[in-house]
Amino acid sequence: MEALKFNSLQDLKTADRGNQNRSGPRPRVISLSAASCGQASGALAVASAFESARKELGLEDKVEFKLTGCHGFCQLEPDIIVFPEKYFYPRVKVEDAQQILLETGLNGRFIPELGFNDENLPNGVSRLEELPFYQNQLRWLIDQQLDLDPLSLEDYLKHGGFQALGAVLSELTPAEVIGEIMASGLRGRGGAGFSTGLKWKLAREVAAQPKYLVCNGDEGDPGAYMDRGILESNPYSILEGMLIGGWAVGAAQGFIYVRQEYPLAIERLDKAISSLYQAGLLGEKILGTDFSFELELVRGAGAFVSGEETALIASIEGRRANPRQRPPFPVVSGLWGKPTVINNVETWANIPLIVKNGAAWFSKTGTDKSKGTKIFSLVGQVKYSGLIEVPLGISLDEIINKIGGGARSGKKIKAVQIGGPSGGCLPAELFNLRVDYESLPAAGAIMGSGGLIALDEDTCLVNLALYFLKFACDESCGQCVPCRIGTQQMVSVLEKITKGQGELADLDLLEKISSTMQQASLCGLGRTAPNPVLTALRYFRHEFEEHIVEKKCRALVCPDLISYVIDEDKCSGCLLCLNSCPYGAIEIASSGLPQIKLSSCEACGLCSSVCPEEFQAVKKISGKDRQLAQPGPDRVS
Amino acid sequence: MKNYKDGDRQVLKVAESLQKSIPPYRKNLIFFLHEVQRELGYFPEEVVLEAARYFSVSPAEIFGILTFYSAFKLNQSCLHHIRVCQGTACHVRGSEAIMKEFSRLLGLKPGELDSQKGVCLEAVNCLGCCAIGPVVVVDGKYYARVNLKEVEKIVAGLSARENAHGSAEV
Fold this sequence. Notes:
The structure holds 2 protein chains of 2 kinds.
Chain A: H1 9-13, E1 28-33, H2 36-40, H3 43-56, E2 63-68, E3 80-83, E4 87-89, H4 97-106, H5 142-145, H6 153-158, H7 163-171, H8 174-184, H9 196-205, E5 212-217, H10 226-233, H11 235-249, E6 253-258, H12 263-279, E7 294-299, H13 309-316, E8 340-344, H14 345-357, H15 359-363, E9 373-380, E10 386-391, H16 396-403, E11 413-418, E12 424-427, H17 439-442, E13 451-456, H18 461-475, H19 481-498, H20 505-520, H21 524-528, H22 531-550, E14 562-566, H23 576-580, E15 586-588, E16 594-596, H24 606-610, E17 618-622, H25 624-629
Parallel strand pairs in A: 1-2, 5-6, 5-8, 6-7, 9-13
Antiparallel strand pairs in A: 1-3, 3-4, 9-10, 11-12, 11-13, 14-17, 15-16
Helix pairs in contact in A: 7-11, 7-14, 8-9, 8-11, 10-12, 11-14, 18-19, 18-22, 19-20, 20-22
Chain B: H1 9-21, H2 29-40, H3 45-55, H4 59-68, E1 80-85, H5 88-91, H6 95-106, E2 113-114, E3 119-124, E4 136-138, E5 141-143, H7 148-165
Parallel strand pairs in B: 1-3
Antiparallel strand pairs in B: 1-4, 2-3, 4-5
């Protein structure tokens, strides 16, 4: 195939957009999800099965097969969507290839046995839109990915790519572009929610030269992967957004910083950038205009704090990612002391959409102050998990119970963790809360970059608070005392509580340390690190008190407060547990059934995991039950 | 990646050949270190000194960067890399117990290296595969929805592979 090359705006206008000048029915497209989660679930083996079956059956001209990025329903990877009907097949296996190609690809017939089956749905649900997970969403960004080859510039053009850039370069002034972005109401998707248009305007107005753009793809929040989704699935949309931004702000160089834990994203972005250089869409005098723009990919090296914008700057400059005091803000003094616009991946991906459809269209969706859509990674203990895109202002309840389908194990969802280590846990009573930049902070959480983790009764809020504080403690850069010492102290207090050695006064101590950290830390990491603890204390204080007073972990998580026991009524005496116990803590009691010697038990849980599902005879106990079960002289010989 | 020994002259040759393609601008320093990590698997002292000379910074500055970022290892490389995701979604699905089980079976704490078997166990903050957790990655192969029972199988698979490959390159 001839490499694409665009020398002028006219070249771009006449580019093959695929849909015109074609008559007759077009072949069906089988689209297989192959982002990281897809590949981790075997997508590549499935892909080669489809490719070879397509050859064998002589269907190469009749059925198109595509490897795409993420389809959103990550739990069911690898999945297939057949266009144009949008038939959906979850967890596709190698041996399904022939049948799907012939029945659905060629003949357009859905195969119910391979479709999505769920006890709450009528049998034979065939189309993507019929799945509850896909309903109630508004997918401006993710829908573009469903049948897009992320590595093909040609395919991006067929999906309307670079029309926005063409329009900007031929019809609009920089001020008009900035005005449009401001009017759209787009706010930073990295979590802080600063107006993107205003940021651009400020950077444009600074006299200093040169100016830089940065795409922040250092998505470090554990439990969140929205940016990875876009980076791997639609890299060109980010690049187009940056080109538009470069032109509007007056920057001639940009950097995309991606965390090294995302090798596939780095690989795809790297290829996308080279192809744009080849096509004349990056480099000198783009499309024959006076606009030149260079773009460089920077690989992170594994430090959560790099996502903080001043730390990000230090890291790109080749230094330790130590944050610094703001102001001056990066729009005034950023990379090498020059004005720098830093936006998140999802923010950049929204730019071409706004330019193409207009600010008025964009701002119709959302609330008063929070416009457009937002991608969340809906994970944890919900029934359906994956990447979702919803209009801002949607309620948590709709997200958790409608899109997520409620709890996955028949248990109750008791809270949702939103915003990662800087965010908080909101209880089920607050699920009518709207998801936007104002409502969440009022409740003690933050919008954050989009991590949304559903927690059921099996999650201990004290343990989770400890988890986040350990994370912050590990990732603290150590420059400023409140964060360096504060996180350590909070970890040790929380550890004491989870071990059953806490006192009630410790809860006040936690609040005191939190308040110091919030006020005196140098950067956002330290200032927001106490949030997970504070919200847990605000909404789940009783769980802390139970740990302290009753030595009880109601979620049966904290290892020092639980014991495993065997329920003799359920036990079949198969002795799998006895054979698996690494500590020799299981003995045969006088009844002939196995019994756990609590003094030797390390609470690793292996016995419970090997106990056959039909018996489930190993159970966990805590608090009063546990004290009663402590080995007396007559229990274990 | 070869299994280099300390004091091996070869390590300096690797650093020197990287210098041909990477100019000594400060901006390129972390990229250079990434390449060294990829080629050598760790940073022998002589390479740290060489990098400092090449980029005209102090060795302390290089050490500062190497110890700040988790991508860089100062210890001898490992042949088998087990990474257990400790992201929040994996955490609430029991990754802590999974890590403990790996620790027990391998006799290693997170972050430790078994220099005899060349196995290292690492806790990683989030691999971004949150919907299919708990996730474990062994030498680049992903294991999704790992439960306690499977840990033993994964570890057993490791020694099987070791036998098949001997001490060959991986």
